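Ticket #4471: structure output looks truncated?

Reporter: J.K.
Steps to reproduce: submitted the chain below (395 residues) through the standard prediction queue, then opened the result file.
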Amino acid sequence: MGAILAGCDSVYFGVEQLNMRARSSNNFTLDDLRDIASLGKEHKVKTYITLNTVLYDHDMQLMRSIVDAAKENGISALIAADHAVINYARKIGMPVHISTQASISNIETVEFYSAFADVMVLARELSLMQVKEITREIQRRNITGPSGELVRIEIFAHGALCMAISGKCHLSLHSYFASANRGACMQNCRKSYVVTDKEDGTEFEVDNEFIMSAKDLCTIGFLDQIAGAGVSVIKIEGRGRAVDYVHIVTQCYREALSAIEEGSYNQEKINSWMDRLATVYNRGFWDGYYLGKKMGEWNNENGSKSTKTKVYLAKGQKFFREANVGEFIMEAHSLNTGDEIIITGPSTGYLHSIVEEIRLDDQSVESVKRGEVFTLRVPDRIRPSDRLYKLVSES
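Returned output as attached by the reporter:
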């Protein structure tokens, strides 16, 4: 809901274990698909299942079950790279988008996959010049997908980047026998390392950078160039991230695309969006390879560099519609008037506000502490078990 309420046109998600975030996030089941498809249709948002891992023979039955269930429940499309998925989806008439794991890097490969897909996610290592050449050739050659329409190109615009080519990494498999290409990445690249001289045993720590941990991709500062390159879809990497990340990032890119369309995209707005993007989880930002860089930019520390931290305070209990007031029970720390808060929940999505008044036992108070039941005005409906956080600026 965080993405939907922020203005996205489509959402992608994993079901069961055949997706690239099988270990790192909570995945949906086949039983959830009807509700997901209904939610998408209600909000006029397309729904895409990521079925993009390497598949073995023993995965075929589950793969077919997922594709069948997707078609039966009205899911918009699959995102896949394995030819087994692409072939079976075509047999039963289920739309497919070609995943970045297919490493599409040239127009001939686009032409090949056009027999199967209307949308293709290009390899992450291409420059915008290369992207533009591909979209130009699609038009010149009139390369159409199964729908009869010109093939549309999608690229990654924001979020975590893997140091491996199009995310196809083997480090976890070598170290832990847990394949990143089967959705079980152990994040080897995000760690610090000590290098040892094998002849004399001398050790030194690589302390200036985490040399395999790329900064997060951020393209909002040149999104107009991406649009000008003929890209039809931009993808925000957000699986496994908190709802505040999903909501704020989606909202910023929605606003930026609208500004480009209206002709009001400018540096002042870019600076404002960058400030907001920095408030949620990030490893620092860089432009990726789109503007011609030959090497990645690496982190110099572990963890997030967000400018604000969220601190859990309270759980939602009731909502009083006529007064637009929520009731909460304080479970940790304290809350004061003037604090910046967010409220999140599976159906609520993401709400943000500044606390103007707190009421305790129907009396206005300046603060509440652990164990107390209190009410405050909220931007929209809350639900039982919604979580209330205080946002604290990093010094």
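Triage note (M.O.): checked the attachment and the full token line is present. The mean pLDDT is 88.
Status: closed, working as intended.
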